[in-house]
Amino acid sequence: MNDTIAVIGATRGTGLAAMRQLIDAGRPATAVVRSVEKARGLFGDKATLVYGDVTRPETLAQAIDPDWAGIVFTVDITGGIAGRGMFASREKIRAVMYGGLVNTVEACKQRGFKGRLVLLSTIGLSIPSTGMKILNWVKPGLRDHSIDKAEYLKKSGLDWTVVRAGILNDKPGGAHALTITGEDRPLEMRYQIARADLARVMLACVTDPAISKREFSVFWGEAGHDSDAELAAKLAALAG
Fold it and tell me: Which residues form the NAD(P)-binding domain (predicted)?
């Protein structure tokens, strides 16, 4: 196994933030993307770029390297789907949100991938809220798709972590300490997190032994900043 972290969903949102953090830190990074040209415009020659479309499983089987340390999977959580559209049919949304994860998991198994797959999910799946009702209206079936894909990953036999994010924003990261808990929270504005902070957490999840096969929620706490050691300690606390 090498030190490379691959990001699926690398050209937008949290995936883009994760790629930029890897590049800025000088860490080996691979972007699995539908448009290599678009990714080249974002990352230049600072990352490895490979073609892979989560709706086309044959492309994932060719893209996945079994020796990667981990995969950060950020495809379509709560934002619009670039090139796929909001207010799409329930079937089309499921093909991306659930089917895309299923295709990735099966390609990993086919390739003998031994690293960890870190899946981005959302808080509020188990707690009724107005926010979740709105998301289900914008993207029909989002709640069920999100629950189903997490359960599929958990039963896959792969090493996994599921990160349930609070409501995402594009504010700069590093201005808040993070609350990390095994409990769910309703999808409400009081539970927010910057994509940059979420990306940092997801990258930390790739190799942290304490959170193998664990699911947790993360959102902003008080003003401040967690050092790497403090973040690691919060993740370790999940193991009890």
Answer: 9-209
Question: What's the structural domain count of the chain?
Answer: 1
Contact (CB, 8 A) for 79 and 96: no
Q: Give 10-residue mean pLDDT values along the chain (240 residues).
A: 94 96 98 97 97 96 97 73 56 91 98 97 96 89 95 98 97 97 97 98 95 97 96 93
Question: Over the range 16-51, which residues count as b (16 or more CB within 10 Å of their CB) and which as e?
Answer: bbbbbbbbeeeeebbbbbbeeebbeebbeeebebbe
- Residue 122: both structure tokens together: 């959302």
Report phi then psi at 77, rounded to 5.
-105, -80
Range of the domain at 126: 5-237
CATH of the domain at 77: 3.40.50.720
**167 CA to centre of own chain:** 14
Distance CA 129, CA 142 (A): 14
pTM over 0.85: yes
For the record, the structure tokens of 190 come out as: 């009081």
∠161-166-170 over CA atoms, to 5°? 110
In terms of Cα–Cα distance, which of 148, 73, 142 is closest to 108? 73
